[in-house]
């Protein structure tokens, strides 16, 4: 398998970074929070795949929901307006649970095309309401909004921009409210004030009549699990409303119980104009994303320009099998999974906090089952681990050898996003194995 993989399978990102030299690691099976490799070795999945297998692996009821739907009706094209019962029921169930009046659901295949979809819908909305000049988009440094071309331009990773002329001229960034490394200091009010000032300044620079929307993740995931101060999102959302800018919450990672509630923006009492989700929506068993639209935005587009304005979609939009999985996963969330995730999340945060005294740990942060350690070589100066001395790959390997899968970001940040089904013993094992990894990194 490893030979075939090297010869033929292109791994997104990994294949270009020499991973093929150390060889792909083939997973054979998985159950709950445990994955088993081809040699039969069991590891704890502290990252739920790619922050997505929220319900854990091997749920028979999810498999049965998919199989039942495959037998009954495996496909119906939303393109011709053909509906299917699971897609309609899932849209209705999501609308009922979404914040405020986000009552309209546009299903996609994942997070990147959900973000693309918001850009198109927003341009349509601004045009239909007579403001076509509102065509500038703002997002955050350290933000991640997908790897499709439009999403990659909103994403703040330089590696995603090279060779493609990204970001597009209409895509702009303002600094992240990164508490551990914010030039405004560690005072949370000062950080919020700095973000508000940066957004105002950017809007002023672009022209207040030109800005269409501002994008933010409730917690910046791929940027290194950066947790904005409490009240930050509400303050930014309110400023957007004042400036006639749409506020888009990208909940692709934070949605579906990762931080505690079904949607993280509710913790900050924020009702966004649009919201993107994916990952936990189907718990990674099948691909699906969902864009939520407010009544005002949907009605404006639908009444104002009909089909022409909404005119884009995908062969697999509102896929019945994905929707059937989504319905079953939602049932699981509401029958103990969210509650278990909240308990496990409290334990994970406390467990990781107990590592704060470790000489390598500069910062411990997170909420619920979303967390990170930021490793430094000098706590006072917050000097990052030198990339050459201990690149992400080595930390990943060290974790793997200790029976733990976590995300090792390139800058000494270790990311955690275990499944919501984790037991207390599994959370404790994640923390203990991490302690061992840190000790070995120190050696
Ligand atoms: N938005 C955010 C916040 C994400 O974290 C991701 C994926 N990590 C995406 C969008 C893109 O989702 P996908 O990989 O499913 O296209």
From TrEMBL:
MF terms in GO: pyridoxal phosphate binding; transaminase activity
SUPFAM superfamilies: PLP-dependent transferases (SSF53383)
Keyword field contains Transferase: yes
Pfam families named among the record's database cross-references: Aminotran_3
Cofactor(s) essential for the protein: pyridoxal 5'-phosphate
Signal peptide limits: none
Domain of life: Bacteria
Keywords (A to Z) from UniProt: Aminotransferase, Pyridoxal phosphate, Transferase
Family listed: Belongs to the class-III pyridoxal-phosphate-dependent aminotransferase family.
Protein's name according to its UniProt entry: Aminotransferase class-III
